[in-house]
């Protein structure tokens, strides 16, 4: 939220996290760095994979949510 990104993250039943990010390219890069190196306080990061990346003209999401 601090970066003004839109999208979501969700914990899976497999102990992994999935999600989507939308926003300014530089802010998305910052978030990806944070996700791959630091993460939330309770997280343990073994590896981080980003895929299906593309540029969009219009954001699909209106905010950033944590899905449960």
TrEMBL record:
Protein's UniProt keywords contain Mitochondrion: no
Catalytic activity line of the entry: an acyl phosphate + H2O = a carboxylate + phosphate + H(+)
PROSITE patterns: ACYLPHOSPHATASE_2, ACYLPHOSPHATASE_3
Single GO MF annotation: acylphosphatase activity
Keywords recorded for this protein, A-Z: Hydrolase
EC number(s) stated in the UniProt entry for this protein: 3.6.1.7
Identification of the protein by name: acylphosphatase
Organism (species): Rhynocoris fuscipes
Taxonomic placement: Eukaryota, Metazoa, Ecdysozoa, Arthropoda, Hexapoda
């Amino acid at each position: 939220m601090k970066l003004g990104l839109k999208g979501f993250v969700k914990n899976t039943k497999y102990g992994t996290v999935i999600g989507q990010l939308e926003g300014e390219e530089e802010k998305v890069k910052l978030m990806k760095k944070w996700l791959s190196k630091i993460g939330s306080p309770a997280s343990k990061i073994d590896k981080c994979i980003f895929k299906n990346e593309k540029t969009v003209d219009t954001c699909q999401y209106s905010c950033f949510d944590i899905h449960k």
